[in-house]
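Quick entry, no commentary yet.
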Amino acid sequence: MSSDIFENPVNTREEILAATYRTLRDRGYADLTMQAIGEELDQSPSLVYHHYEDKDALVLACLEYLLEHFRDEYSYETIDDPRERLEEVVDWCFGTADADDDRQPFVRTVLELRVQAIHDPAYRAHFTRSDQVFAETIAAIIRAGIDTGDFRECDPNAVAETLQTVFFGMISRLFSTDADGWAEAVSNEVELYLDSRVYAT
């Protein structure tokens, strides 16, 4: 997935979402304000308030936009090379362990927002849906691979949930501790898991 999803906003709504994305990435949720988003837009905060009631409504709209972008990018009417597609998704996810990955600041913020879901039903609903979309995307690729003979007979949903759980466990550790020497070993174990559990050859 492109790391610059908002490179070419086509209307005011997308410009506001792009400014929200950049402000979240640079400042984090705690320091996000409508004023800060207005400054990023080089516009009065009143423009932001005209479209969104408060910062949480805006953050949730931004997260929904990103989720739809992910769904569009990784949804295929036909999957010609299931292994290549699965490796793309796995690389996109586990690539955030790389200290040079430019998505790290935003992924850190998403983890911060997940904490909001403990007490906020709106965030909980979003991340429930987000997890479902992510798992369904992986499961669809695995089903396609089973159909083509590229993958072993396995439970696509169980494999998808396993990969998702490992991924979110990994980013939770990455951004809440000072140790990251284990990340490469975990990525290698994921590859071994796919080789032994999913890939046919």
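second:
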Amino acid sequence: GFDKIDGKELLEACIRSSVYDTTGIIASSRMVNGLVPISKYYKNKIGYVPYEKENESVAKGLEYAYNDWCIARLAEEIGDTATYERYKALSKSYINYYDPQTGFMRGKNLKGNWHVPFNPRYSDHRNDDYCEGTAWQWAWFVPHDIEGLIALMGGQENFIQRLDSLFVADSKIEGPLVSSDISGLIGQYAHGNEPSHHIVHLYNYVNQSWKTQQLIDTILHTQYFNNPNGLSGNEDCGQMSAWYVLNAMGFYQVCPGSPIYSVGRPIFDKVTINLPNGKVFEIIANNNSRTNKYIQSIRLDNILLESPFFMHSDIMKGGKIVMEMGNTPVKQ
């Protein structure tokens, strides 16, 4: 809700920031370019950011698609149907970066031609089509439309194969100035930087939850340590720690702005969340151990869950989620 914020005024501010509009900005051209990048003009005009017009075009374009989805959600909340429909359509612009021949999100020029040569392991920090990552890491950044991404990649079986390949690919990164932010590698999955953090949960969307559980267990125990160098990557805004806290409890928000949590692999036997409304939400993992990393069943308030997801409202109303753990994957 918007207890202390005027939702309409907030929406107007979001819309203003989503378009290329320099009206009223008094600053140097360099500052104006930072505040209102030309990429916003192109993403609204032709549906994508041409790589020759601005560096990191793919990363910016994919994040713009997610940002537009967030604006659509806000418009929906305050009942602005026209704005909701417009920005929901804009949030599909991620499709314009997908190359079905390679299976990656790629840069395009103004003529609509793909950026060549193409190497999905290539990194030239701040000078290529991706921000602090490669085509491997950015291929999955569509948190607001996972079902659409699965369809775009050819359906569930193809999606699973692509996702599997991410974690077993050669970890070598190539380029003249490889970004130091590409760290914590498992194959080409880079846990050391934020754009990758939702990826391990994508198996939950294709009925292979045991892979999510296995990967989370590996990351929790191999990429976090209690020492000054205990993180595998950049702690931007506390995201590395936030990932750990949520996943250690057993769940994660794949898409900020969506009130849905994806179940992972809890490492605590019991977690108690004391809510601001005075209620309590408990997360219990029975038969939990280092080897018993696979969830056998999930019950929310004694009701068996048929899928590994629950709602934020389930937490806020108080209650209990119970996970039975075991050492054998449960394959659907």
